[in-house]
Design goal:
The chain is an alpha/beta fold. It folds into 2 domains: about 80 residues, 3-Layer(aba) Sandwich (Rossmann fold), CATH 3.40.50.720; about 170 residues, 2-Layer Sandwich (Dihydrodipicolinate Reductase, domain 2), CATH 3.30.360. About 30% of the residues lie in helices and about 25% in strands. It has an 8-stranded mixed sheet with strand order 5-6-7-4-8-9-10-11, with helices on one face. Strands 1-2-3 form a 3-stranded parallel sheet.
Amino acid sequence: MDAVYIATPPKFHEAYAIAAMQAGKPVYVEKPMGLDVAACERMGAYSKQTGVPLVIAHYRRALPLFLEVKKLIDTKAIGDIISVRIEMLKYDSGLLDPVENWRIDPSLSGGGYFYDLAPHQLDLVFYFFGKAKSYQGQSFNKANLYKAEDTVTGEIELENGIQFKGDWCFCVDKGEETDIFEITGSMGKISFPVFGHTITLTTGDKEEQIHFEPPKHNQQNFIEKIVGYLNGVGENPCSAEDALQSMRVMQAFVYGNS
């Protein structure tokens, strides 16, 4: 079975995905799923209406590091989960022209670098811990280098009572860069970079580091799951409804509407 992979800027995801589904072709679309929540809802509704499969590229779900984190959570390696924290601070590389860098043009990307990188992080929150009960956040343009937000903060209360807090800033000094996903439990802590390769597991006075070699291609494991799904083996590895969770939260954090 042939499928269509859509890896354009998010502005074009909806039109291309629906055109492909109209032709009867399953669609694999990059994250963020679309320009905004409304576009994503229309894509998901069309897939549901026609029965043509739609999969969203939250491929970190299938990488060994994040599968190990999920296993540690599910086996209560750090006890009951109390809170989750993400901190991402990044230096702007200097590619500021929206013509050359569509990621900082909200009309093409939906937002700034937050819309490009946070989908990976927020999707993992929901993959690990389930659905959101409520969420709120704020965004700012601190450096005024481009139209999009460069600083975002937000909080989520998950349905299981776990509290989440996230901070993102894309205008820090190069020496201040940070990528932390930290899970605190009643018996310890799990921390790791979403864009790195090492888990740090802390229980009591013991600290263990677990290193992972990434696959040759980051999406390889996830695509294998998609192939199985399209051939009738297994479930959709990331449905439109799955991806809509992070889209709704991102839109609320940046634009104040859920």
